Amino acid sequence: MWLASVPTVQAYKASNDGHGVVGTSNSGFGMHGVSIQDAGVFGESISDIGAGVAGISHNSGAGMVAVSRKKGGVGIVATGAPDGIGMVAVSRNDHGVLARSINGNGVHGLSQNGAGVFGECDNGIGVLSRRDSGFSIYGSSTNGYAANLDGRVYRFGPLQKAGGQFKIDHPLDPANKYLCHSFVEFPDMKNIYDGVIALDNRGEAEIDLPD
User: Fold this and answer.
1) In the chain, at which end, N or C, are there fewer CB atoms within 10 A of the end residue's CB?
2) 18 with 34: CB under 8 angstroms?
3) Residue 112: is it exposed, middle or buried by C-beta count within 10 angstroms (0-12/13-18/19+)?
4) What are residue 165's DSSP bridge partners?
5) Which residues contact 89 (CB under 8 A, 6 or more apart)?
6) DSSP alpha helices (H): ranges in the chain?
7) String of b and e for 59-90 (b: at least 16 CB within 10 Å)?
8) Average confidence (pLDDT) over 132-161
9) How many CB atoms are closer than 10 A to CB 170?
10) Where are the alpha helices (DSSP H) in 59-211?
11) How far apart are CA 125 and CA 135, in angstroms?
């Protein structure tokens, strides 16, 4: 462990119910671990409620800072047990997790079979996105849908689209067929059907609409 830049550090082994290693600093790092090939700092907890590594800040600083100095490196790797959680971040009044990037992704979530990013909230907003310009939320899919919304949708502001269409269940065979409609903007609520007909000798024609 490299402690050359730390003004005052105390490290000791405590009892079974205490801290294994404690690092204290007045102005520098409380603990600084450097490794050429393995983990700089490794923490493990056997208890069901204990933390392998815990970072706490009492002022405006960060409880934990992880930096990767090599392009393509990772600042933090959190791996949970087969049925456990890799990382838990808790905040009472502010962000649980704050991720910033200058040119890359602030948060990049990958999942083999589940959700890359999952947002859940009891009373507020599950996922919140803000941006002054450009896309606040962008979804892209090669073969499927870019977005799938299950439930009511409400929007503020104008809606711009390249075209308008909707697909509904066929009323005579809803289990096996759909009705695909395109629509045009109109001030009144109307359904418009067009086609080609032949008039009789009186210039009239009768159209039979489907059920």
Assistant:
1) C
2) no
3) exposed
4) 182
5) 96, 97
6) none
7) eeeeeeeeeeeeeeeeeeeeeeeeeeeeeeee
8) 85
9) 13
10) none
11) 19
Tell me the C-alpha distance between 45 and 53, whole Å. Answer: 8
State the sign of the Cα–Cα–Cα–Cα dihedral 150, 156, 162, 164: positive
Residue 179 structure tokens: 């009705």
Q: Is the separation of the CB atoms in 165 and 182 below 8 Å? A: yes
User: Structure tokens of 184?
Assistant: 């045009």
For residue 98, give the amino acid letter.
Answer: L
Measuring CA to CA, how many Å separate 96 from each of 93, 99, 166, 183, 189?
9, 10, 39, 44, 47
Residue with tokens 């007909």: 197
Cα–Cα distance for residue pair 98/57, rounded to 1 Å: 14
Average per-residue pLDDT for the chain = 77
